[in-house]
Amino acid sequence: MRTFVAVEICNESTLNAIAKLQSELKIKAKPVSKENMHFTLLFLGEISDDMSPKIMESLSSVSFNPIEMKLIDVGAFPNPKSPRVVWIGVNKDAAKNLVDLAVQVEEKLRPLGFRSDKPFKPHLTIFRIKDRMNDISHELNKFRSVEIGHETISELKFKKSILTPTGPIYSDLQVVKAKQ
Prior knowledge:
The chain is α+β, with helices and mostly antiparallel strands and 180 residues long.
């Protein structure tokens, strides 16, 4: 099964603000649906069924405080001139805390053979772009320095992803709660 470790956006008003922003961005791309809004901390890829309990055992020892974040700015990877993904960023403190959490997840899962192929950069994907697109800098600049919403991250999730022609379907395999 195809899996990853993530934290999700659950605040309904923030999700609605993201959906509004998606509708206001005039680009030809597939928006990520509200129920799939998440920060991927570590993509694990295809795993065997017998690996799943080992991952859960390792993740159960992850310890973190709730992460308060402001969703701010809009950008594109690899860049706005040749975008493949459009994303929303987070404030500096939240970014540091998310990076720390991603590092901890990777440290817990490294003995099982999992490691990131690149350093974690906190971003919330809101569009995936399949076909080559022209420069969208002008469109993204309309949303520079805007505050899109707030979120408190209080759960880490080990998730399964089933790819379908209409988009991915995610389900939770494990939920690790933040310290209270």
